Design the sequence.
């Protein structure tokens, strides 16, 4: 038989149930209050990098990679076709004026020089023989002229005697005419001989001039061959460093082919390459900055190569101080080509949080919160973006990568 529960027990049970309900409701209320704070994303202050929006000058640049090269490089080419007998110096070796770099087999050139000397001697002998022959011919003509002058004097004297005898009636008219005709004939023959001498002298001068010209040509050819033989020793004509030389002994080089390159390491320039999408912005004369050990060297763009290789365009820069002590041959450097310049603009440090020339969503610190803000950037410099709108002077912008938080309006900063 059931017995009635005592009132004290019922009261205790009711109190326990009310207490449990109150605890559950309190826990639920606390969870509702604390849960948003627990679930809201947050970032540690040490985990982010920030930068202030400042005002100043901005240079829009194209970033490229470059190599320091000598400003002047002497090319030694082979003056003759020859075989490389011995390589005396290798690339990287310092050279001084007069140092021999390699030896060439010049036997064929020496043989040609000997043949040239023989032709030269033969031509001189021919010239002398021709001079003697022409001198003899002229001497013969002059001798005939002297003889003919004597004959003319005799005939003129005879004609004068007959003219006198005819005036006295001692000889016939025909004898006088005959003497006068013979005198005139001798005079004509003398004149012809004199003209022959003049013509022969002119002919002699012309033939001797031709022989002299041929001799001069052979002499110059012989001197050029001797000069080329001297050049075939491949000696340096300046102080510097050997940057390249024919790589293998026994190689046959043709006339005009490069034997060696000597760089003058007193001054340098920079050769760089960049993606061909920037080709239109590479204009000779534009200022450049070459970063050596983090410090910029000023210069200007001097040459742009017309061909594009593997999607890249190459260009050359001249430095304002090409003899800077930090420059070294083949040193790798960063190059900044200045394409635009603006003064008194808002700028902010570059980073993975944004790209130039577009509208971006960035996070700006407001107390202990990072608030997502719409911002537009313009020119892109080497270290800074130009701020067009959305940010104001003094704003502290998170420049770290915030891609995974872009769906949030704000992020708590611890």
Sequence:
């Amino acid at each position: 038989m059931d017995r009635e529960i005592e009132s004290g027990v019922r009261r205790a049970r009711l109190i326990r149930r009310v207490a449990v309900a109150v605890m559950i409701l309190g826990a639920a209320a606390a969870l509702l209050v604390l849960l948003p704070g627990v679930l809201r994303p947050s970032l540690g202050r040490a985990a982010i990098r920030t930068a202030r929006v400042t005002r100043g000058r901005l240079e829009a640049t194209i970033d490229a990679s470059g190599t320091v090269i000598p400003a002047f490089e002497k090319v030694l080419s082979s003056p003759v076709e020859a075989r490389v007998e011995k390589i005396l110096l290798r690339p990287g070796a310092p050279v001084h004026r007069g140092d021999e770099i390699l030896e060439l087999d010049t036997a064929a050139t020496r043989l040609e020089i000997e043949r040239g000397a023989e032709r030269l001697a033969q031509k001189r002998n021919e010239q002398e023989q021709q001079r003697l022959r022409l001198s003899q011919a002229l001497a013969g003509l002059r001798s005939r002229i002297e003889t003919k002058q004597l004959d003319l004097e005799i005939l003129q004297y005879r004609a004068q005697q007959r003219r006198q005898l005819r005036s006295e009636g001692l000889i016939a008219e025909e004898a006088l005419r005959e003497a006068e005709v013979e005198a005139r004939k001798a005079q004509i023959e003398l004149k012809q001989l004199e003209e022959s001498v003049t013509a022969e002298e002119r002919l002699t001068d012309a033939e001797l001039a031709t022989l002299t010209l041929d001799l001069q040509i052979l002499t110059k050819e012989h001197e050029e061959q001797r000069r080329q033989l001297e050049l075939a020793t491949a000696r340096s004509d300046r102080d510097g460093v050997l940057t390249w030389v024919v790589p293998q002994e026994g190689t046959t080089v043709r006339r005009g082919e490069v034997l060696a390159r000597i760089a003058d390491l007193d001054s340098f320039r920079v050769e760089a390459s960049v993606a061909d999408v920037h080709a239109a912005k590479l204009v000779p004369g534009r200022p450049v900055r070459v970063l050596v050990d983090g410090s910029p060297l000023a210069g200007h763009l001097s040459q742009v190569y017309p061909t594009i290789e593997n999607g890249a365009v190459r260009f050359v820069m001249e430095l304002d101080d090409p003899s800077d002590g930090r420059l070294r041959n083949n040193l790798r450097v960063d190059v900044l080509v200045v394409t635009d310049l603006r003064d008194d603009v808002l700028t902010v440090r570059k980073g993975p949080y944004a790209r130039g020339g577009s509208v971006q969503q960035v996070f700006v610190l407001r107390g202990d919160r990072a608030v997502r803000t719409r911002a537009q950037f313009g020119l892109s410099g080497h270290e800074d973006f130009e701020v067009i709108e959305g940010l104001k002077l003094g704003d502290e912008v998170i420049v770290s990568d915030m891609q995974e938080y872009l769906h949030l309006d704000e992020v708590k900063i611890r």
